[in-house]
Fold each of these.
Amino acid sequence: MRTMLFHIPSRATHSSGHAQAALRLKSMAVCKICDGVGLVRVVDATGKWISRPCECQAAEREMRRLASARIPAGYWDCTLDGYDTAFPGADPSQAWALKTARAFVDSYPVDTAGKGLLFVGSLGVGKTHLAVGVLRRLIQERGVRGIFCDYGALLKEIQQSYNPRNTITEFDLLEPILKAEVLVLDDLGAQKPTDWVWDNVALILNTRYNNKLTTIVTTNYPDLPPGATLSELERAAREQTLGDRIGERMRSRLAEMCVRVDMNGKDFRQTVKRARFG
């Protein structure tokens, strides 16, 4: 049974994405309306000539917000409109997930009230595509400031910050993640669970929950409790769950923070998007 808190109408690394977006921003053509000045002269209702911002300024601000969102190069072109649900063998849950994503954007921020989305599914069903698509739409249509974060990459960067030779501190890495208006936390649970990993999960999720900041999460692990009460043999024979990977306390926190979106289907990357040349 799928439940939502908003209405559905009937109808690679951080730096690489940032660098690509910055290049796109730098290569924007000089505006033909204002000749790059950023202002245009118009006559107001009283007949006086006044200056107002050129329409190109809104587009430049949007591109700057996208550049600062750290969307990886491999996902830069992912949009909700570009998410295909009509290919042969597509699972109905993928169309439902797209519909939910669109409804979320339409409802943000009033009806979502700080809630986010939790995309759950196996490899290659389009979880990250939809998460990035939601982030892009919120940046473009709602003017939000958001960030994409690969959780495994973040943990590695935090570990590297402990090196005395590294000038970037753990606080420098975590502050934008904790404070972003909208955060996409990709591939949650991918790292082998340890107390240190769980402490970081708790810090991010609890901080954002307490501040009512929107978090969009993707995970490959089923949203089920951990198998702590099972024998070692039973645990080895069963698929690991999100509870196993992040702990039951944080899985419960996610249930408060996010509307779950279950996605099924074959690995899109092994079929429709399989690498080819020629």
Amino acid sequence: MDKISNEIMTTKFSTKIESHTDKEIYDIKPEFGSGSFTLYRILDGMYLSHSDLRINQILVNKTHRVFSEPVFKLHYCLGGVCISRCHDEKIYSIQKGNTGYFVGTNNFNELEFLTDTYHSISLFCYLHDICASMEALLTETKDRLKVFYAAHHKRKNYLYIKTPVKILQLINQLMELIKAENQNMVKIRAIELLLEEIDHFDEYLQYERKIFNHTTMKKVESIKLFIDQNIQRHLTIEELGNKFDLNETDLKNCFKQAYGYGPYAYLRHYRMQIAVNLLLNTQKSVLEVANTVGYANPSKFSNAFKMTFGITPLRYRKLQQQ
């Protein structure tokens, strides 16, 4: 599986720790974070990857920006948020519960993980090889694969959707088989997943999510940084939109797509993460912590903290100190 592992940059960011027939396991190199990545060969030209990652920096691809032949990839995000950028200026953000469809020969330039952990399953296929494999296995499938590829290739942007229930069910079954290390059934279920996708992709267009352009994404990244640096302020959507020249609808939708929260929910979440750090690592009182993270009223802070963690700040500190 050298070809696929090199082209998806597995060998640059991770170290192979196990190699079996049609299965390889990699650990993320310490300089990039931690976690693991497992690659399965399903058929000639078809691979399944399962990743559980904790990446601490942007992953930059300088050597394999174009695949050796046309490919398509179906990426299912099971947890976390990731932004991918390609040299053709296409950019997408994917989060838990969503699927991305990518076709062509362009590889990513950068991958940026916006959450502490990222969990996903992907199907990766070399078009010519998988067509030959599927023709040998299921005669009529070759033509359906070509139609599937062509339909996605002619799109201006990659397709990005909320993962349909039927697909989620197959993904959950795959996860159980992976945990049970039932490699033969993993292959069967992966083929079933691909067939489900190519037979019903036109129906899944109803779940499509808007993909925002590079300029909008960069503005939203700047908005997030501004929020991070101003957690004591009560920021409004109107104020943020005016400051960064972005209409309120795109601001809210793009922000949620990129970070998994709307701006208000993100600010509350970020405040709570800062509050936890202060409660555990400083001697500040609950009132001082509340003021530091932007709550003038300690009761409102305690209520927000309890909504997030299920207990009051004082109780949380005492439990962690036991």
